[in-house]
Specification:
There is one protein chain. By secondary structure, the chain is an alpha/beta fold. It has two domains: 19-74, DNA polymerase, domain 1 (Orthogonal Bundle), CATH 1.10.150.530; 80-382, Alpha-Beta Barrel (TIM Barrel), CATH 3.20.20. The protein is 32% helix and 18% strand. Strands 1-2-3-4-7-8-9-10-11-12-13 form an eleven-stranded mixed β-sheet. It has a two-stranded antiparallel sheet with strand order 5-6. Helix 7 runs parallel beside helix 9 and helix 10 runs parallel beside helix 11.
Length: 390
């Protein structure tokens, strides 16, 4: 197996204290035993954690004289809410989190009829340096621990269960790794997070593999590793250009692994899993939205087990980057469909709350260009030409 290059190692800016979610079940049981408690207390703590219980006083199945000790040792608080922002009549909530070392990350919870999706971050900042992305312009602070990543999903599940999102109590149904950071550059911890998302209670959230999407800009060795390890989660490739000349500029990692290599790796994943992959393509006015590029993308993907998710760029004041106009979007869609490529245009949520990943963190730390992709909303494609899209 080819190891990921060291260039993707994040600075170790004080990784957080040990947490139950960072441990295997066996390690957690051993840790509880070392604290003088029977091993099954680890299962009780896991049940409380994955239900979003943070107050030891509510852990009534654990002896009162052991609750504080166990919680302090294995359930330390890792994510502190800086603020929530809501949009879409309360159905979208973006949360800015402060980590134990002051680093900032974001997650976005989006509710639709019958389902709810949370977009989570895997890194504080990002080292991929895509010029239209607010997170990419911040640079990489550090990788998140598995517990910090899992904690975002657990908080979203608890918010749904508690009825904190407009619509009353509900269930978290989907998780997408499309927040801050490149998930596959933090492979080991993201892989552990996948285990927790998919594991049944009390050791996880019990989601289906089809309900979890991992996005990548194209770290080919990591895509191959994910393929070899046999998970059937949805793979999303952030392509943004069909040709190497443009993609070298928009997605600098393309200078390492070219478009053809990325698509070959995604095709291998599709063959192994039987699952079609998603190609994420931000439509940027006069940059990558030309008809000839639609034709190039159609030729690249024709006959493949792939689906194109077109994303009108979330425009931000002061940026040179802007969304493609509606006529250009329509022609791009038409040309892809003429080539036989399944194509949708993604609904954009939260534009009135700095919905693009990285914008809240940028505002609360250093001043960077607040330009990025729109809030992911993978289940709600919008057909161009439909009523109300003008």
């Amino acid at each position: 197996m080819t190891a990921l290059p060291l260039v993707f190692d994040a600075p170790r800016r004080g990784m957080p204290p040990r947490h139950l979610a960072d441990l295997t079940r066996e390690e957690a049981r051993a840790a509880v035993t070392e604290l003088g408690q029977p091993a099954f207390r680890a299962d009780q703590l896991a049940r409380h954690f994955y239900r979003g219980v943070t107050d030891p006083a509510q852990m009534t199945d654990v002896p009162a004289d052991a609750r504080e000790t166990l919680a302090e040792a294995l359930l330390p608080g890792l994510l502190t809410v800086v603020r929530h922002q809501t949009a879409d009549d309360g159905r979208t909530r973006k949360t800015l989190w402060r980590l134990h070392d002051g680093a900032l990350v974001e997650s976005v919870l989006m509710r639709y009829p019958g389902r709810a999706t949370v977009c989570i971050s895997s890194q504080a900042g990002c080292g991929m340096a895509c010029p239209f992305c607010a997170t990419g312009q911040q640079g990489l602070t550090r990788n998140l621990s598995a517990a910090e990543i899992i904690g975002q999903a657990v908080a979203a599940a608890a918010a749904m269960a508690n009825g904190d999102i407009q619509g009353g109590p509900g269930r978290l149904s989907n998780v997408v790794f499309m927040g801050m950071g490149e998930p596959l550059a933090n492979y080991a911890r993201v892989r552990k997070t996948l285990d927790a998302l998919l594991a049944p209670a009390p050791h996880g959230l019990g989601l289906s593999q089809r309900a979890v999407t991992v996005s990548t800009v194209g770290l080919v060795p990591a895509i191959r590793r994910l393929t070899d390890e046999g998970r059937n989660v949805t793979l999303a490739v952030s392509l943004h250009a069909p040709d190497d000349e443009l993609r070298d500029t928009l997605v600098p990692i393309n200078t390492r692994w070219k478009v053809g290599e990325v698509i070959d790796a995604a095709d291998a994943y599709a063959r192994k899993t039987g699952r079609r992959y998603s190609v994420e393509y931000a439509l940027i006015r006069d940059v990558n939205d030309q008809p000839f590029r639609a034709d190039l993308l159609g030729k690249l993907l024709a006959g493949k087990l792939a689906h194109v998710n077109l994303i009108p760029l979330n425009p931000t004041p002061g940026s040179k980057w802007d969304a493609s106009p509606l006529p250009a979007q329509r022609e791009f869609v038409a040309r892809l469909r003429a080539a036989g490529v399944a194509t949708t245009v993604r609904d954009t949520r939260g534009q009135d709350i700095d919905g693009a990943c990285g914008q809240l963190a940028a505002a609360d730390s250093v001043s960077v260009p607040a330009v990025a992709l729109p809030v992911p909303a993978v289940e709600e494609p919008v057909e161009l030409g439909a009523e109300g899209d003008e």
